Amino acid sequence: MLSAQAVELRDYHKAVIGNDCKACHDNGIKQFPSDQACLKCHNIEDLALKTARNDEDKWQNPHNNLHYGKELPCQECHGEHKAKQPLCSDCHTFKYDKHKE
Ligand code: HEC
Ligand code: HEC
Ligand code: HEC
Ligand code: HEC
After folding, report:
1. Which domain holds residue 64?
2. pLDDT 10s digit of each residue in the chain, 101 long?
3. Residue 96 lies in a domain
4. How many domains does the chain have?
5. Residues enclosing ligand 2, CB less than 6 A?
6. Any idea where the Tetrahaem cytochrome domain is (predicted)?
7. Which amino acid residue places its CA nearest to atom 36 of ligand 4?
8. pTM of full prediction above 0.85
């Protein structure tokens, strides 16, 4: 378990969220955030458009993919205080060059 002093936010979140842990930790600091917290600021339809592939690779889109559509929880692929690989990397070698580890 990390202490409050030990946690680091991502640079892209530091500026907008600062020390407001509750912006994400909507179920208390000891629980991982729900997707609802992320979706207050992010929109899954927009994300699916931003990471759309060409037709051939269409279902490799992390935000709208073959197995889970748009329903996979953010934290299967995005960490906040620690690096995280997209779940897909467990079984595939798709290129996700823009992913922030
Ligand atoms: C208070 C608003 C807010 C909340 C809550 C929030 N974000 Fe963000 N997030 C932002 C903003 C603003 C940016 C920077 C602009 C952008 O890339 O959309 C950002 C950027 C990101 C990026 C990086 C974009 C890049 O440059 O590659 C990821 C990944 C991300 N957020 C995931 C999440 C996840 C997962 C959660 C929930 C655990 C979350 N965010 C909660 C506002 C928020
Ligand atoms: C942008 C969203 C976001 C913000 C803001 C945020 N967290 Fe987190 N936190 C997460 C996510 C996602 C996880 C799941 C594990 C991970 O990615 O590190 C997590 C996990 C944790 C954990 C559990 C770690 C573990 O391995 O058991 C602690 C403790 C924690 N956060 C503390 C904090 C504190 C303290 C703050 C405020 C300084 C904070 N968090 C702000 C998203 C956030
Ligand atoms: C537990 C293993 C596993 C995970 C995790 C997984 N897949 Fe798959 N995936 C498979 C298997 C098995 C097939 C069918 C065999 C094949 O065609 O490679 C497949 C097929 C596919 C295909 C069609 C074939 C291809 O290679 O283009 C796509 C697209 C795909 N998965 C996308 C994803 C995405 C995106 C993720 C992450 C959200 C993901 N998968 C996560 C096991 C997995
Ligand atoms: C299957 C894994 C996966 C899931 C689930 C996922 N993401 Fe992503 N996300 C990625 C990858 C991979 C990228 C980088 C795209 C690339 O490299 O083409 C990304 C990029 C982003 C970006 C930057 C988009 C841009 O180009 O500006 C944001 C913001 C983001 N994700 C937020 C989220 C949020 C919020 C959720 C939950 C609603 C979520 N993601 C769910 C894998 C995922």
Report:
1. 4-90
2. 555 567 899 999 999 999 999 999 999 999 999 999 999 999 999 999 999 999 999 999 999 999 999 999 999 999 999 999 999 999 999 999 999 98
3. no
4. 1
5. 1-2, 4, 7, 9, 13, 17, 19, 21, 23-25, 29, 32-33, 75, 79-82
6. 17-93
7. 74
8. yes
